[in-house]
Structures are given as structure tokens and as C-alpha cells.
Design brief:
Serine Threonine Protein Phosphatase 5, Tetratricopeptide repeat, two-stranded antiparallel sheet, 46% helix, 10 strands
């Protein structure tokens, strides 16, 4: 996959970009004449994967910065998201919507055209499985961010896309579940060809399906599919012994990675620029010779969520920047630092790690009244984090279901910080309103004194983003706005 990820410009070569970013087709020439061979469909599939890279540059703002993990001090449109003052004209929210439907459109073309293509069904099914996973993944993000959204599983004409209304949340999840089930049935646990490593697998589809079921509070169904991931002998998923090694260039697509957005350095187009985006501006920090752009800054609340002795803290963030013999209170995200070009790194972005699967499974067991099993699972994560069993939980530290809910929510926070999970975790556990009334953003790292504390006063309707005003206008008001905006 690393060798294939160079973007193949098959759709963007047309002048109909305005149609792409909504729901409409690019042109009859592209959809009719291009999709014939297996190579054509694989190239189209790579263009769908490419959208995941594009939307990933906005995801961290809409999830981590919106949550209590990260904060933003640079641009107004990011600041508005961070401070719960986002409006329907926010350009990042609008861009995310466009990218999401661009990805859906690209997968719909593949799924629409592949039935009539002349190559073996086995190869077709592998392509179908990947396309359905990507479509489901994008719709899963859309429904969690916006609630009811337009649902389309076919290639629409422009007139049809304009008339499209928002579909019920249950309908959207029905397609997501169906797509992920079919993807899991079609995809291999591992790929025989090393060039295909990094593509979606059976384990990725089942893990994402488990997350969908957990979000829907369908705990028995979640348990079943998560156990499939954990018991997949061919994939052999496991935790790496050292947490920091998960984010090493040498361990890309390791046994801990269930699915990651792939990046390639040296291409000029497909590199990961998050080291530059997240690093502090001070050139003497351990980020890069040229410094960073200071986005997605760790909050004091996140810093204080780590217990003493937790190795994940130093691997995830730094509380300060060293300047000569002095230090500056400038915390920054360290999870994506590698020894490569700051704007063109090959470090992948994990979407689902095996530790996420274990923590989801622990949460599910607790909800199904297996507290002992749940504690056993969460302790797997803690033993790696602390390097011993001295920090393990037991029935005394976690006497019941509600206490476990609190513990596992925090464990997910410190394990998966800056991987775009926190906002969704807070919303699905109904804890967003509790955690996002006041945010402690900056503290003196020496004394612990809070330097910046900001009232957020989050309201219930703000668990959803506004539907972009530009999309409502394009739809001739067929799209309606979310309550409160």
C-alpha cells in the first residue's frame, strides 16, 4: 500500500469539482468509460483512500480540539470549534462535509460499476470490501458529527443530489452495519502481497463494526464482533511491548495496528505533515529544526489525567519547551514526531489500534455485567503503560459498573489521546456536558497552577455540528438545520 499510495488523479481531472464535493457524479465520460479493468478499479480505490488523508487534516480539529484533550490558539475557525461558538458558515465544517461526500461518491462509483467488470469475483470482492469499509467509515463520522445526513448508496444525477433530504439516523446506521458486515465477509485477515499491506482487512471491518455497535449500545453484538478481532489467528493482533514503539517509523502496520491511514514520505503529496502542524514554534524543541505551527495543544486537563509513572504521558505530550537552560510553558503533542521532513513524514495515522479493541471489549464486558472480565482486559493496557502490575485495578478500586465506566473512559483518554477518539467517547457515553463546561487549558508545569481556564458552557444541542449553510442553500432548502444553529 505504501508503494501504491501516490494519488492517482482519475476523478479530479474533470471540471465538475463542484458536483464532486456534493453528491453528484463527475461526468458520464469518467463513470462510463474509465471503469473496465481490475487496474482501473484499484486505481479508483486508491483515490477513495486518498480522501481519508484529506479529511484527517480536519478530523483532529473537530474531535480532539473540540474535546477537552486539545486546544487551539491560532485561527478563528478553529478557535470557534474549540470554544463552542461554531456557526453554520464555519469553513472547516463545510470542508469536512464536502470531503466526506467526495469519498462517498468515489466509493459509490466503484460499487456501481464493478458488477459488470470483466475480472474474477475474488478480486472484485476484495475491492468491494474495501470500498464498503471506506463508505461506512465516512458515514459513521458524518452521523456522529451531524446526526441525520443525506444517505446515498448509488451514483446520483445532479438534479437528484440537489433534491436529497436528510435521512433518519437509524437508516444511516443500517447502511453502515450492512457495509461493514459485507466488508468483513469479503476481506482477508492479511494480504499475501506486501504491496497491499495497509489496505483494509477483515479485522478492521469487524473492529469498526464493534465500535458502531458500542456507539449504539448494542453490547452483545459488539462483544461478538470484537471477539472475532481478538481471536483472528491469521492477523495475530497484539500489543507491542513498549507504548512509544507503536508510533515509530520502524513499526508501521505492526501487529497492534488494525487500521491506519497510510502516508509515504518523499512524495511531496502523500506525506504526513502533523509533526509540523502540532509542534511548538520554538526551534529548539525536539520537534524539528524549523519549529512547528502550535496546533492541537495538550490541555492542562489532559496532562493531569495521567497518573505518575504512566509511560504514555512522555510519549504523547511534553509539558514545556526547553530554551537553553530555561523552559517555557508551551505544551505540545509528541505522538507524531519522527526523524523525517516535518511536512512530509511517512508516519501513518492509527484509526483503530488493538489497544482500542481491548478497551472497547472491556467496556462491553462491564455493560454485560462481567466486571471481573472487564477489569482483566483494562489491566492489559495498564501493565504496558506502567511496566508492572502494581497499578492494576481490582475489585476494591473498581467495586461496580459505574466506577468502571469512569475508569475506562479515562483509560481510553490517556491511551488514545490525539488519535481522534475523545470527542466521540464523551458524546456516546453522555459525558460531554459534564466534561465541557470549563476547560483548564494551560498550567505552570513546575507548580501545577492553572494559568488559563476558560468557561465553555456547552449546551446539549452542541453534541452535533451545524449543517453547513452553503449545503442548505445549494439544496434549495431541502436540507434542514440542526436545532440550536
Amino acid at each position: 500500500m505504501k508503494k501504491l499510495i501516490i494519488f492517482i488523479s482519475i476523478i479530479c481531472l474533470t471540471a465538475c469539482e463542484h458536483e464532486i464535493i456534493n453528491l453528484a457524479p463527475v461526468s458520464e465520460l469518467v463513470t462510463t468509460n474509465f471503469y473496465e479493468s481490475e487496474v482501473d478499479f484499484n486505481n479508483a480505490l486508491i483515490s477513495a483512500y486518498d480522501v481519508l488523508q484529506e479529511k484527517n487534516e480536519i478530523d483532529f480539529i473537530m474531535s480532539e480540539i473540540k474535546s477537552d484533550n486539545g486546544t487551539e490558539m491560532k485561527y478563528q475557525y478553529e478557535w470557534d470549534i474549540d470554544n463552542f461558538s461554531v456557526s453554520s458558515t464555519n469553513e472547516l465544517v463545510s470542508e469536512f462535509w464536502k470531503l466526506a461526500y467526495k469519498g462517498i461518491f468515489r466509493t459509490n462509483i466503484i460499487l456501481d460499476k464493478i458488477t459488470d467488470a470483466d475480472f474474477p469475483d475474488q478480486q472484485k470482492n476484495t475491492i468491494i470490501g474495501q470500498a464498503k469499509f471506506i463508505r461506512a467509515y465516512i458515514y459513521f463520522d458524518l452521523v456522529r458529527y451531524f446526526g441525520e445526513v443525506p444517505l446515498t448508496a448509488t451514483v446520483l444525477k445532479l438534479s437528484e443530489s440537489i433534491e436529497h433530504k436528510r435521512n433518519a439516523i437509524d437508516e444511516i446506521y443500517e447502511l453502515i452495519v450492512s457495509d461493514l458486515k459485507e466488508a468483513a465477509s469479503f476481506l482477508p485477515s492479511v494480504y499475501a502481497d506486501s504491496d497491499d499491506i495497509g489496505r483494509v482487512t477483515k479485522g478492521a471491518a469487524n473492529a469498526m463494526l464493534g465500535k458502531v455497535y458500542l456507539t449504539r449500545k448494542m453490547y452483545s453484538e459488539a462483544k461478538t464482533v470484537l471477539e472475532k478481532v481478538m481471536g483472528d489467528a491469521n492477523a495475530g493482533y497484539q500489543l507491542l511491548p513498549v507504548f512509544d514503539d507503536v508510533f515509530s517509523l520502524e513499526n508501521q502496520n505492526s501487529k497492534e495496528i488494525v487500521f491506519a491511514i497510510q502516508y509515504s514520505s518523499g512524495t511531496g503529496q502523500e506525506g504526513n505533515g502533523f509533526m509540523k502542524i502540532f509542534g511548538p514554534i520554538n526551534a529548539l524543541a525536539d520537534v524539528s529544526p524549523g519549529g512547528g505551527a502550535e496546533h492541537n495543544i495538550p490541555t492542562a486537563d489532559l496532562i493531569n489525567a495521567y497518573e505518575e509513572g504512566d509511560t504514555r504521558k512522555a510519549a504523547t505530550l511534553s509539558e514545556y519547551v526547553a530554551v537553553g537552560t530555561d523552559t517555557v510553558n508551551t505544551p505540545y503533542n509528541r505522538k507524531y514526531l519522527v526523524d523525517q521532513n516535518v511536512s512530509d513524514s511517512g508516519l501513518d495515522w492509527p484509526v483503530i489500534r488493538f489497544s482500542d479493541v481491548i478497551l472497547m471489549y472491556a467496556e462491553v464486558l462491564n455493560e454485560l455485567d462481567d466486571l471481573t472480565g472487564a477489569i482483566s482486559q483494562i489491566n492489559k493496557i495498564r501493565e504496558r503503560a506502567f511496566g508492572d502490575q502494581l497499578h492494576n485495578f481490582d475489585g476494591t478500586s473498581i467495586p461496580g459498573k459505574e466506577e468502571f465506566r469512569i475508569k475506562v473512559l479515562n483509560e481510553r483518554r490517556v491511551e488514545l489521546a490525539f488519535e481522534n477518539h475523545r470527542w466521540f467517547d464523551l458524546v456516546r457515553t453522555d459525558k460531554a456536558l459534564d466534561f465541557l463546561q470549563v476547560e483548564n487549558r494551560l498550567q505552570d508545569w513546575r507548580t501545577g497552577n492553572i494559568l488559563i481556564s476558560l468557561p465553555l458552557n456547552m449546551k446539549a444541542y452542541q453534541t452535533l455540528y451545524p449543517i453547513p449553510l452553503s449545503e442548505i442553500e445549494i439544496s434549495n432548502d431541502n436540507l434542514t438545520q440542526n436545532t440550536g444553529y
